[in-house]
Specification:
about 170 residues; 6 helices; two-stranded antiparallel sheet; single chain; globular; Ferritin; 2 strands; mainly alpha
Length: about 170
Amino acid sequence: MKMREEGKLARDVYLALYEIWSSQVFSNISDSEQTHMEAVKSLIDKYGLKDPIVENERGVFSNSKLKEFYDSLVAKGKKSITEAFKVGATIEDLDIYDLDEAIVKSDNRDIVFVFESLRKGSENHMRAFVSQLEKYALSYVPQYISQEEYETIISSENGKGRRYGRKGNRYW
């Protein structure tokens, strides 16, 4: 299941960036990503699916594109603390986009429930990274979700999540 290895990507990048910058936001969110990975693993186990994580070592992925993405994100995040926060926002942006896609494609209530919960977590993480950028008078421009969706997420309260409904093939 793609979302399990994407959770590992996020966790691994955040751990690497924490070692470089010692910003607690990376440590806290890497812990949350581990929880996300475990939630998806429970779905994999329940439905007898193949776990894409064969090796849990940091930076090791079954998907070679994720390995390349990991390397590029860590390299970008090493440049400065603000670039590191942008990397975090980018990861959460992609996670939200991919979770929306997975939710739309699934008719399994268990999967939809878990993925909606993960999406709320990703929204909280995005707000945390954007908040860090704002301390430097910087902003984040979404690369995967729409600007409108991004603004809705950033302006909503942490932990509250959103009510979901379908609009075409996207959730709102």
